[in-house]
Amino acid sequence: DPLSARRERPQYRHARANARSVARTSARAGGAAV
Q1: How far is 1 from 4, CA to CA, in rounded Å?
Q2: Residue ranges of the domains in the chain?
Q3: pLDDT given for residue 23 in this prediction
Q4: Cβ atoms within 10 Å, residue 26
Q5: What is the pLDDT of residues 1-34, one digit of tens each?
Q6: DSSP-derived secondary structure letter, 34
Q7: What's the whole-model pTM score?
Q8: H helices of the chain, where?
Q9: What is the per-residue pLDDT for 27?
């Protein structure tokens, strides 16, 4: 269990960072498109 928790933590953090970067890129693309 502790191992899975450790694996989930970094993945969750990475997913969060990815979501932020995606939101930024989408916002930039939307602004450029419009």
Answers
A1: 5
A2: 1-34
A3: 75
A4: 10
A5: 667 666 666 666 777 777 777 777 776 766 555 5
A6: -
A7: 0.35
A8: 2-33
A9: 67
Max CA distance (Å), the chain: 48
- With tokens 């933590």, the residue in question is 9
Q: How many residues does the chain have?
A: 34
Residue type at 7 in one-letter notation: R
- In this structure, what token pair is assigned to residue 10? 């970094």
User: Position of tokens 């995606």?
Assistant: 22
pLDDT of residue 32: 58
Q: Which two tokens stand for residue 15?
A: 């997913």
